[in-house]
DNA sequence: AACCAAGTTTGCGCTTTCACAAAGTTCGTA
DNA sequence: TACGAACTTTGTGAAAGCGCAAACTTGGTT
C-alpha cells in the first residue's frame, strides 16, 4: 500500500480533507484489486457489501431493462468513489459496474461507511457531492432523451466522453477507453446503425477520427454546434 | 403549530425516528406556507436557502432546457422532504418545484440542515433514503426514455401517477391533481398531440376516463399490459 | 496462414411519431 | 352570460430513425 500513498494524496477529492495519518488509516483498511477490461465489479441488485474507489481505469455503469436492452447511464473517471449504495440509503447496488478498461480499485467493506462518515470530517460531504454530480448528470440525460434528436444526443455523448475521459494527443483529444458504436447507442438510446452513420459522416467532415474502437475528437467546436437543435 | 402535530406524527417517514419532544423542537423551527396551484415554490439554479416538507398537496419538479422545452422529472407526494440540495452537496436547487395543486409546506432555513442531521439520529438516513428513491426513479425514467416507445412511456407515466398520487373513488383510481395532455407529454418526452390520441383511444377502450383535467384509471391491469414492448 | 469473432458500413423499406393546421370544448372571469 | 384563454381532438403530410439484411474490415487466436 506504500506506493499508493503519494499518488493518492493529490488526486482524491473524496479524501482531500483528511490528514495524512487519517489517510493512512483509511488506506490500511482497504483491499486492492485489479479488474480486467470488460469484467464486472458488481452487479445490479446485488447486496451492496462493499464500496469502491477507482484508482486507475474507467468504470461503465449500466442497467438492463426487462426486455434485456442495455442502458449505460454514466462513466466514472479515476479518483471517484462508486458503489456507494449506502449514501443513497440503499442496501443493494442500483446498477452494474463494468471495467471499461483494466481498472485498479480500492475496496472497503460497506460496514466501514458509517465509520468513515462519522469519523472523518468531510468524507461524507465529499461523497454526497459526488452523488449530487451524478444526479445532475442523470437529470441532464433525462432532458436530452426527452427533448433532443439522436444526432444531438450522440454529439453530446461524444463530447461528454471527451471532456470527462479525454487525454490530449497530437491528433486531437482521445477518449481514454475503447468505445464501440454499440456502446454509444446504449448511452444515447439509439441503435448502433444510426450511430455508425453519424460517426462516418463526422469522420468524413474531419470532426473526429475513429479506428480500433478508439475515438479522437478533432474539432470539438463543430461537435458543439451539432449539439444544438437547429444545426 | 399545535394542530399539525397529530397528523404529522403518523405520516412522516422523514421524522418517524424522532421522539415526541424532538419533533416539537423541529416543528417549532419551521415556517408554514400555503402555495396556490401552479405557483413556484423555488426555481432551478436559485440559491438553496431553504428546505421543505410537503404537508399537503402535490409538487411538480421540472426543468427547462436551453431551447425552452420543459421536462417534468417527478412528482412529490405529501409527507416527503424536498428542496434538499444540501443532501446532494449542492448550494443551488437542481430543478424547479411547482405546486401541482394547492400545497401546504413546512419551511426551514437550510442552515438547520446540518443541525438536524447531526442532532437527530435517523433524520439524515431518512433523507438519504428519499434521495435514493428519487435516484431510482430517475434511473427508471432514463431506461424508459432510452428503450421504450411513446405508448409504453405514457402508459407507465399514468400508472406511476396512479400508484403514487391516486385516491380510490367509486369510478376507479383518481389522480389527485389536475393533469393535462401537455403535462403528460412533458413527463414522457412526447407531444401533447400524441398523448391526446393515446388517451382518447384508452378512453374508448374503457381503460381510463378523463375529464376536466382529471384522470381516472379504470383498468390498471390493461394499462400494465400496454407497458410491455410487444403489446 | 487461416479462421473466427467482433465490430462496422451501407442499403432499403417501414413504422412511429412529430409538425402543422384547424376546429371544437371547457373554464374562469369580467 | 359572454368572452378569451387554456385545453383537446382530429386530420394530413413528412421525416427521423429503426429493423432487417448483407457485405466488409479488423484483430486475435489456434
UniProtKB/TrEMBL annotation, chains A, B:
- GO cellular component terms attached to this protein's record: cytosol
What keywords would UniProt list here? DNA-binding, Kinase, Transcription, Transcription regulation, Transferase
- The residue ranges of the Cyclic nucleotide-binding domain are 14-103
Name the lineage: Bacteria, Pseudomonadati, Pseudomonadota, Alphaproteobacteria, Rhodobacterales
| The keyword Kinase belongs to this UniProt entry's keyword annotation | yes
Q: This protein is called what? A: cAMP-binding domain of CRP or a regulatory subunit of cAMP-dependent protein kinases
Task: Spell out the InterPro entries in the cross-references.
Answer: cNMP-bd_dom (IPR000595), cNMP-bd_dom_sf (IPR018490), Env_Response_Regulators (IPR050397), HTH_CRP (IPR012318), RmlC-like_jellyroll (IPR014710), WH-like_DNA-bd_sf (IPR036388), WH_DNA-bd_sf (IPR036390)
Cite a single Pfam family from the UniProt record: HTH_Crp_2
Q: Give the species this sequence originates from.
A: Shimia gijangensis
Gene Ontology MF terms: DNA binding; DNA-binding transcription factor activity; kinase activity
Is Calcium tagged as a keyword? no
- What is the residue range of the signal peptide feature? none
Domain annotation HTH crp-type: ranges: 148-221
**What Gene3D superfamilies does the entry give?**
Jelly Rolls (2.60.120.10), Winged helix-like DNA-binding domain superfamily/Winged helix DNA-binding domain (1.10.10.10)
